[in-house]
Design brief:
The protein is mainly beta and about 120 residues long. Helices cover about 10% and strands about 30% of the residues. Strands 1, 2, 3, 4, 5, 6 and 7 form a seven-stranded mixed sheet that branches. A hairpin with a 5-residue loop joins β1 and β2. The chain is globular and about 40 Å long.
């Protein structure tokens, strides 16, 4: 019985590292503010720290977010994504030309913003 228990413990200790789709990052939609003011946290992959907020505090709630950025092209985010959902994306400035209806109401977001495209 002990060898089986030891095997199970060792198997649980070995975690496979997630493989990201090519040229993609893993993000979490952490805050879906009004008028398409979205906050995304980077949870997989590495983006230059000068382009994202290592730690951002929402002034309305006091909640902290790690490796966060605002979405500069809100039309690129599928409406089916909910707060807390994780997804794969790539940086894509060509998405900035896409237009959709947005309003001018304010919802706090990090100062740093990135354009993205959803990875297949």
């Amino acid at each position: 019985m002990k060898p089986l228990l030891l095997f199970c413990l060792l198997l649980g200790a070995c975690k496979s590292q997630e493989v990201l789709p090519e040229n993609c990052y893993k993000g979490r939609l952490s805050l879906r503010g009004i008028c398409n003011n979205y906050v995304i946290e980077l949870v997989g992959g590495t983006i230059d720290t000068a382009r994202i907020e290592a730690q951002w505090k929402n002034p309305d709630t006091g909640k902290f977010y790690k490796n966060a950025f605002a979405l500069s092209n809100p039309c690129a985010l599928p409406v089916s994504l909910k707060e807390g959902d994780e997804f794969y994306f790539k940086l894509d400035s060509t998405q900035l030309t896409e237009t959709c209806i947005t309003c001018k109401a304010y919802s706090p977001t990090p100062r740093k913003a990135l354009p993205i495209a959803i990875c297949p």
